[in-house]
Amino acid sequence: MTRLIDVEFFKLRKRMMTWILALVLVGLVVLLYVILWNVSGETTSRLSLNRRFTPADLRRVLFVQFSVPFSLQLVGNFGLVLAVIFAAGAAGGEYAWGTVRLMATTASGRMRLVAAKLVVVSVLVALGALLAVAVGLFCSWLITTTSGGSDYSFVNGPFLRDQLEAYGRTLFVLAPYVSMAFCLALVGRSTLAGVGGGLGVSLIGPLVASLMDQAGEPWKSLPQYFIHTNAQIILAQNAVPQPLPRFGPSLRELVREGARPPTEAAVILLVYVVIFLVIAFVVFRRRDITAA
User: For residue range 148-183, what is the model confidence (pLDDT) as tens digits?
Assistant: First the structure.
């Protein structure tokens, strides 16, 4: 397993796609901070129209204290697309390169080969989320120091624990989509199958859920078991202070709509992960890859 993990890490580290996705993620975080910083310089009357905050309020929440949950929110929503593309490319790349037969026959077991790929993908996705947090911290540090808000007395044990919990929730939300893209790429024998299936579910799922909400039972209850519905419940636990934009429903909105408890949502997401991974392992183990 150690040698297989080293090989998979070497291949993904040398792929241009890995670095392009990382640059896109970094650019996205920087772009959002630049936009919000520029908005915070607008006049109070323009920004506060029908809103209960001022440009000074917005600039204040761009400080270091709130950078981690805001950066993780970007990862959990927009970084999801990049994670799906990365996982699908890692799983389906062997078919595109024509090396799947060589890898499967020289590796010490197909199950170990798939497991090594999955381990490397999971580690790199986690590092990608950590990279987004680091960039967000750097942008917030610049804003904090240039705005005279260099007060780090908030850094204590409970604060660090909350940030680690938010990081764990974000990775947990990404897991079903990453495992789905990984599974579909292996089953469909192509990167395109994983990317198309993963992005299709993440983008079309909310639309289908909104249509089902307008119908009667049992259709109205089915969206409660969709991936995005339960992912929103988990992400809503990450506190994002106002007036920072939230790219999804808040915890208060979910409670008002009668959303399920976070523990139940976590169990549903975990079931999705297990199902997708079992399918991926079983299909690849039984597939005849020696045939033309």
Answer: 666 677 778 888 888 898 899 999 999 999 999 999
What's the token pair of residue 38? 């520029």
3-state secondary structure 244-266: CCCCCCCHHHHHHCCCCCHHHHH
d(C-alpha 201, C-alpha 214), whole Å: 20
What total of structural domains would you count in the chain?
Answer: 1
* pLDDT value at residue 205: 83
Determine the structural domain holding residue 276 and report its residue range. 2-286
CB neighbour burial string for 226-242, b if at least 16 within 10 angstroms, e if fewer: bbbbbbbbbbbebebee
51: tokens are: 């809103």
Non-local CB neighbours of 119 within 8 Å, separated by 6+ positions: 5, 8
Residue of 19, 28, 20, 24 lying closest to 247 (CA atoms): 28
Question: Counting beta carbons within 10 angstroms of the beta carbon of residue 138, is it exposed (0 to 12), middle (13 to 18) or buried (19 or more)?
Answer: middle
Condensed to tens digits (0 to 9), the pLDDT of residues 197-234 reads 888 888 888 888 888 877 777 777 888 888 988 888 88
61-78 pLDDT per residue, tens? 677 777 787 788 888 888
Give how far the C-alpha of residue 206 lies from the chain's centroid of Cα atoms, to the nearest Å: 16
**For residue 229, which of 189, 282, 255, 265 has the smallest C-alpha distance?**
265
pLDDT at 267 (0 to 100): 94
